[in-house]
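Entry 14. Structure prediction run on the chain below.
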Amino acid sequence: MVELDFIGDGLIRLAGQKVEISGWVKTGREQGKGSFAFLEVNDGSCAANLQVKVDACVSDVSKLVATGTCLTVDGCLKIPPEGKATKQKIELSAEKVIDVGTVDPATYPIPKTKLTLEHLRDYTNFRARTTTMAAVTRIRRKITLEAHLFCDEHDICHIHTPIITTSDCEGAGEMFQVTTLINQSDDKSPTEADIEAAKLIVKEKGEAVAQLKAAKASKQEITASVAQLTEAKETLAKVEERSRLKPGLPKKDGKIDYSQDFFARQAFLTVSGQLHAETYACSMGDVYTFGPTFRAEKSHTSRHLAEFWMVEVELAFAGVEEAMNCAEALVKDICNSLLEKCDDDMKLMAKNVDKACIDRLLLVASTGFGRVTYTEAITLLEKAVAQGKKFENQVEWGIDLASEHERSFFFYNP
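Output returned:
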């Protein structure tokens, strides 16, 4: 018996063998007036499903066909007879259904039909069960892995940079703040009755310790009672401290007093690990960080995410040309990896989400990146304006290039 940890076309090489598979039913249908059922089972390892045939003598097929059912099955892998009208290259003939996790079809929120991404936001705990989100997750996994492999192969050391920081490394000022002061300000101040109640508990616990000592109780009993007394005293101290706090945020000289905050100063979610990576590069050579970053820009476009993951490479003893070479090689390496190792998932994306995604990967992987100086870019944009191109942001030397400027031309370098 082979216990499989994947489902896909690779199973063809195991035809004739007895295996054990686990997964979730994507679709199921009873046949032969309930005498058997066909199940499309997926274990999340790839886009492909495995067809499982279950006879009624093996298990109650009515409990297996609902979309979302989780099961573990023992059986024999078989290649369907030639000429049989089926898309399946191989199927599993079930000999034993070991475990079944049933679902209620009336309330299960992920049906067979395609759902919009907006709808799935209401069912975040189930969305990974959809074909699209599962494919996105596998693609992201491959991108992450290839980024790490690329840096490792080029001796670029991986470092971890803080998620909570006091630095605004890009000077944008749009950062999410991390503070405990709001929690404290929202707490209801203890009343005199609360303080007296805490004092009474301390008194009772103290008397209990004294009584145990007078009765020459065991060391274990006295120790336990002393621990309860200590806890009661600590609670009293906290209650008294909270009673002295003024409502609202603590202030000093008219400003928020961050000296009473957790870090005793302002702290934020990081917008970049760049500054920390630079310090490591100045002692360890080439380094990179790959982690979550947070931006608080008030924008709801895909170009301004509140949270995203970013690869940041800092090369020691390198100029702009070397940095550009590294960036281009990394992007091309990832594109080639997706084309070679995520073929099924990328085809699914092209079919359901973005028809041109594979073509773009091929273009990026096979085309040299164009490189121009800032001045050359402004010159090209000015030529575009002279030819009738209109921009919301005026084009002149010294401006920061906006998204509309970046999208207006494509540099080709064979």
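The mean pLDDT is 88.
Filed with the rest of this week's runs.
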